[in-house]
Amino acid sequence: MAKKERSFNLKLYAVVVFFAVAAALVLIVLFTFKSKYTAFHPDQVAESYVDTIVQTGDGYNAYKISLVSKSQKYGDYIRQYYIYPVIYREAGYKPGDNIKELKGFNDKSYMSEKTANDNGTLQGKVIDEMYDYYAELVGNGWDDYDAIFTKYFEKLCSVREQVFGDKYMTDEIMFTALESNVATYGKSLTGTEDEFDKNTKKQISFKSIGEYEKVYGEDYKFVCEAVGEKELPLEAYKEGADKELLETYGVSVDDITAAKSYTVEVKEQGGKTVASDDVTVVQIGNSWYVDNNATDTSPLYDFYK
Question: What angle do CA 192, 44, 178 make, to 5 degrees?
Answer without folding.
Answer: 40
